[in-house]
Amino acid sequence: MTEEKKETGTPNPSQEQSVQEKPKQDEMATSTQPQEVQPAKEEFKEEVVKLEELEEEHEYSPQEMETLTKLYDQTLEELKEGEVVSGRILNITDSAVIVDIGFKSEGIVPKEEFDNIEELKPGDEVEVYVDELDNGEGQVLLSRKRADFIKNWDRVIEKYENDEVIPGTITRRIKGGMVVNIMGVDAFLPGS
After folding, report:
1. Taking 90 as the threshold, does the pLDDT of residue 144 lie above it?
2. Which of 18, 23, 24, 147 is deepest in the core (most CB within 10 A)?
3. Which residues is 97 bridged to in the sheet?
């Protein structure tokens, strides 16, 4: 007869007793007595693997190794103070423009260094000069004016080396000559 009860799904007397002894969900929620927590029993298989075996499993072809090495080297490219780099504007605040230059932290450019600040928006690409990699507060200080100056100075040198005429605008008169703005670079023009 017990076989018939198992087939029909009716619990046998010992099963009925264990079911009745379990507290109901509502009783468990209102119970104030701490219950003992049993740690989960998981079995881990410990395995010692030699480094040589791992290297053998993951051998790369010379072409794959070269590609991986190049990718790794590109991620570690160091920025140096005094370089002009390209970056992407992340945010424009009341006093600064935050630029991502691919370094561990974003760089800060004073807002007044941009002549066209109204036209700029996050996502725009800009060239900036790396002034300081760490100003003592963990910030990277950048300069748009210095980047423009260096770029324009390079153009002036190129024109000079090619014996080209360099147009300029006289900005003021000083003792002994004039100050001439040549592509954003102030130059001295002697009076004699």
Report:
1. yes
2. 147
3. 92, 109
